[in-house]
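Sample pair:
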Amino acid sequence: MQQAAEVAGHEIGTGAYTVYAQTDSHLLGVAISRVNVCMGDSRLPPAMMALGSNNTATICNAVALACEEIRSELAAAAVADAQSPLAGRDAATLKLSDGTLRAPDGRSEPMAITVARLGGGMVEAFVGNEPKNVRPGPCATAR
């Protein structure tokens, strides 16, 4: 199962490609070699200007939010299906690791099966990351 993190932002030597891939890999429980990071295309989701390491920090948080949204969607599908070994469990307690959705009690389901519950194909999340305690004006003009 291939993963992707996509953003219109640019890499200016701050390690963004690596950090985004590491975050995606860790939070979605897949090997880093299965994560594809795409950047620099204006058709992709917008990002702040790359200034120092702020782009890496800001976008990395957005990647983490997207991963959590995907984990939550997969978990909800698994616990709602009576055919799933995770049926009836608390979706909030399920974690992704090694390509598997796992409950604290050890029950699990391969992520490919969980994705199939959502119609197969692709599971996407589009998120924003507005830093706390920053007025909306500066964020809007920096894009």
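The beta strands are 3-7, 35-39, 95-97, 100-102, 108-110.
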